[in-house]
Design goal:
Number of helices: 29
Oligomer: single chain
Largest sheet: 5 strands, antiparallel
Strand order of the largest sheet: 4-3-7-6-5
Strand content: 25-35%
Number of domains: 6
Helix content: 25-40%
CATH architecture of the largest domain: 2-Layer Sandwich
Number of strands: 34
CATH superfamily of the largest domain: Histidine kinase-like ATPase, C-terminal domain
Radius of gyration: 47 Å
Structural class: alpha+beta
CATH class of the largest domain: Alpha Beta
Distance between the termini: 155 Å
Length: about 900
């Protein structure tokens, strides 16, 4: 044999000088043009010809082939024995159907090939092997990628927290993911029955069957629905189901779906509906549409309903709910379905469409429940959630869903897959949305990049658990792209390879941020509402006690005055009666404190500068506190005035400072008194006791802070309770009195304290537009005044009537008595011409003072009527303004006070007569 080169640049070839040279030349001319590697080799395995593509693939040069290159040089050592075996088979007369080998380039790199070859027969005998090699690297990469993708989606389906399934058009389950055992207790093979055999007797399952059957018949995906299934142990488990038909050649061949366990959510919804009636005070501030209906007529709606529909509250309230629906049929369907569900379950939920005022349509999830459980004919509350965007998103997703990806994209929770190094390998769009990122931005990022430093240790603990093969459910906080925190519930499953080695994890992630905030806000409001109701109840109790006690003190004061007047100047009994007088005055002061706590104290209202009050009290405050206390003042200049009683505000300042001084005890400390003005919004007011019902606007604040011992939570919860005290002695009315004065001035109060961290009290009062003023008290003049005529005295307490009758007779009046309003009207009607005036008690049986006053004024408007009560003049004047009374006398009263009130009422009557 000899080596020759063609005249043109050709691949390496060796000529054997045979008569077949022309045929060989023709074959090799064709082979040179092929995009595949073509070769010929002799019986020793040495290449005798290769085409240009082989040079390109293997990297050998012409000189290499001239020196001699064999098949062994073009394959990795592990494949050489297989090649030898294949060559022997081919030379024995068989053809190669395509064997895969790993080719070896000159530079040592490798690539996969498939080789097809056959024997070269000349003169009836085999003289070599001819074949082609196909580079299958790209195909290998595609196959590996497909295998990994299928494995990924299989893991997502089988390791997700949701149950995935497939059933035939006969409703027989043909596939169940492993979650069936965790959720319902069945092994997958045990539950491959008609799915209706697993359903409970709940009527909601009829609707589920209808949806599924409709999807089978039409090939059109139906909306998500809820279903109740029976677990193996008898438990009833609720699911939210998303499913779609598989259609082939225009015919449905199966149904695939994903079911999410919503049992806990259903229970939570039940609890929430029970509480909703007690939380009607927050309806208007709720971010969800909330309202109330009676016989499907709208009684109330919150602002969110108005935003959703475009109607004002005035346009909705009083109208039939039909105004919101597209058709009569939809209106009737929603009503029928909701009340059907309410009858069965106590609550009804329907997804429907509403028509906005501008004619556009929005999708809503409408939920209703009777205000009184079981009373479907009475008032019912409803919530409306705008799900328009959610439905649009679902429709967009349904257009691109395919098999496993269809199931994943319909999930309402995030899916997060990480590798063994905790780097993100897959997320669904929902997970990216929760973190404020795109899917592309998430891929490849380490899990720790979404965690704060304080949570790294906990994250590493869960990572150790995953590596040990543990499945977990826990709550965790991630950091979003904008820095805010995502409160999430995770259901995490480790991913293992076929050797049981940890290769990553998959997690179902639910966003609980808004629910957590709503729960915290709801708990805060519940506590505040309970505290306000408790204070109001105690206030009513304290006011009632003070009112009744004042009646008793009335009898004590009156009889005591007469007893003192009847005794000789040097009587030994005068000393004892003086002590009784002083004790009764202290009792009256205690009543005033109780009235102050109830918010019904006696106020002399005027425009008052809080800064001036503090300034004038400085010296008095300095002597009232611990000698070891350091006083600091921070009073803003030019404070706006407040509408207040100066004496009551002084009492607030004094009580707070005395409380601060006692908190310091024998220790050295600082008491800081501050005053200023502040703009209060709804959020700020909600954070203060009594602030929930106050209007937004400018307020003046008074703040007293100490560096004393502070209070724990239990103590803070009781500090405004009457007669609660932490001191060995004392009545415990200081802070309750402060609360009552603040409430009576339409203010609010807050306290910040901690054990060992001092205490800060802040009270706020509405700022006034009037200039500050001072109310001067004019001393009354008393002498030997005598009246004339007849006075009608109306009071249900016999001891009050007795002592007041003696007082009136002391002034020279004739007295007619009545024990209640009914008796008083009869006497008034028959004696009105001879009556000088009427003293009328407000709290009486049968007919109270309010009704009696109105009836008397209907008979005659000329007789002066003086109202009498244990409540304060400020409270009575505000309630009875314009009702036609001539004055007010607060129990318990003495002779001098009674004289002033009667003289004032009769004097006003005389002036009217003169003027007329």
């Amino acid at each position: 044999m000899k080596i020759r080169k063609t005249e043109t640049t050709r691949p390496f070839e060796i000529s054997n000088g045979s008569s077949n040279l022309e045929a060989m030349e023709s074959f090799r001319d064709i082979a040179d043009l092929l995009p595949l590697a073509v070769f010929e080799m002799d019986l020793g395995g040495r290449f005798t010809y290769v085409n240009p593509r082989a040079f390109e693939w293997y990297g050998f040069t012409r000189e290499d082939f001239e020196r001699g290159v064999s098949a062994a040089d073009a394959l990795i050592p592990a494949d050489r024995e297989r090649v030898m075996q294949a060559a022997r088979l081919i030379l024995s007369g068989r053809k190669s159907g395509g064997n895969e080998y790993t080719a070896l380039r000159k530079d040592g790199t490798t690539f996969p090939v498939v080789v097809y070859s056959s024997a070269i027969i000349r003169d009836g005998r085999a003289v070599g092997i001819r074949g082609i090699a196909i580079d299958i690297a790209d195909r290998k990469h595609v196959e590996e990628a497909r295998t990994k993708s299928e494995e990924l989606f299989r893991n997502i389906v089988e390791k997700s927290n949701n149950l995935f399934y497939m059933h035939s058009v006969d409703h027989v389950l043909t596939y169940l993911s492993p979650q069936i055992e965790t959720i319902l207790g069945y092994k997958p093979e045990e539950a491959l029955v008609r799915w209706t055999d697993l359903a409970t007797d709940n009527p909601v399952n009829n609707r589920a069957y209808e949806f599924t059957q409709k999807a089978i018949e039409t090939g059109v995906r139906q909306p998500p629905y809820e279903i109740e299934l029976a677990a193996k142990d008898g438990r009833r488990v609720w699911f939210e189901v998303n499913e779609a038909p598989l259609v082939q050649d225009g015919k449905t061949i199966a149904i695939i779906g994903a079911a999410r366990d919503i049992t806990e959510r259903k229970r939570a919804e039940e609890t929430l509906r029970e509480r909703q009636a007690r939380l009607d005070s927050i309806i208007r501030a709720a971010p969800t549409g909330i309202g109330m209906v009676l016989n499907r007529n709208i009684i109330e709606v919150n602002d969110r309903i108005c935003e959703m529909t475009g109607y004002s509250r005035e346009e909705l309230v009083g109208r039939s709910a039909r105004i919101l629906y597209m058709t009569d049929q939809e209106f009737e369907y929603v009503g029928h379905e909701k009340y059907r569900q309410i009858t069965l379950n106590g609550v009804g939920s329907v997804e429907t469409c509403w028509r906005r005022k501008d004619g556009s349509v929005l999708d809503v999830l409408l939920s209703s429940a009777p205000l009184v459980a079981g009373d479907v004919a009475g008032y019912a509350t409803f919530t409306a959630l705008d799900i328009t965007e959610r439905r649009r998103a679902e429709q967009a997703l349904r257009a691109s869903e395919k098999r496993y990806r269809q199931l994943i994209e319909t999930l309402q929770e995030g899916i997060w897959v990480i590798d063994e190094g905790a780097r993100t390998t897959f997320v669904n769009p929902r997970m990216a949305e929760m973190l404020g990122l795109t899917v592309e931005e998430l891929l490849g990022r380490h899990l720790h990049s979404f965690v704060g430093e304080r949570d790294i240790e906990e994250m590493e603990m869960h990572e150790r658990h995953r590596r040990q093969g543990m499945r977990e459910r826990y709550d965790f906080e991630f950091i979003r792209k904008d820095g805010s925190r995502l409160c999430a519930s995770l259901a995490v499953s480790p991913l293992m390879n076929e050797n049981g080695e940890y290769i990553g994890a998959i997690a179902g992630v639910q966003d609980n941020t808004e629910r957590k905030r709503a729960d915290e806000e709801r708990k805060r409001l519940e506590i505040q509402i309970r505290q306000t109701q408790k204070l109001e109840s105690l206030g009513v109790l304290a006011g009632g006690i003070a009112h009744d006690f004042n009646n008793i003190l009335m009898a004590i004061h009156g009889n005591l005055e007469f007893a003192m007047a009847d005794l000789p100047p040097k009587s030994p009994a005068r000393g004892s009666l003086g002590e009784v007088d002083r004790a009764s005055k202290r009792a009256a002061d205690l009543c005033k404190q109780l009235l102050a706590y109830s918010g019904k104290g006696r106020f002399a209202i005027g425009a008052l500068n809080v800064g001036k009050v503090i300034e004038e009290m400085t010296e008095m405050l300095a002597v009232s506190i611990s000698k070891k206390a350091v006083f600091r003042f921070d009073v803003a200049p030019d404070l706006p005035p407040i509408e207040a009683d100066e004496t009551q505000i002084q009492q607030v300042v004094m009580n707070l400072i005395v409380n601060a001084s006692e908190a310091l005890g024998e220790d050295t400390g600082t008491i800081t008194v501050s005053a200023g003005s502040i703009e209060c919004d709804r959020s700020y007011l909600r954070g203060m006791l009594l602030g929930e019902r106050l209007p937004e606007g400018r307020y003046v604040y008074l703040e007293v802070a100490d560096t004393g011992c502070g209070m724990d939570d239990d103590t803070q919860a009781k500090i405004f309770d009457p007669f609660f005290t932490t001191k060995f002695t004392g009545r415990g009315l200081g802070l309750p009195t402060v609360l009552g004065i603040v409430r009576g001035h339409r203010g609010a109060i807050s306290v910040r304290s901690g054990k060992g961290a001092g205490t800060t009290f802040r009270v706020i009062f509405p700022a006034s537009m009037r200039p500050a003023e001072r109310i001067a008290e004019i001393p009354a003049q008393h002498g030997s005044w005598q009246g004339s005529g007849t006075v009608l005295l109306v009071d249900d307490e016999e001891m009050v009537r007795s002592v007041a009758k003696r007082m009136l007779e002391h002034f020279g009046f004739g007295v007619l008595l009545a024990a209640d309003g009914v008796e008083a009207i009869e006497v008034f009607r028959s004696c009105q011409q001879t009556l000088a005036c009427v003293i009328l008690d407000l709290t009486m049986p049968r007919m109270d003072g309010v009704e009696t006053l109105a009836a008397m004024r209907a008979i005659s408007g000329n007789v002066p009527i003086i109202l009498s009560s244990g409540y304060s003049e400020h409270d009575i004047s505000r309630r009875f303004a314009g009702k036609g009374f001539a004055g007010f006398i607060e129990k318990p009263y003495r002779l001098a006070t009674l004289e002033d009130k009667i003289r004032s009422a009769l004097g006003a009557r005389m002036r009217r007569v003169v003027e007329e």
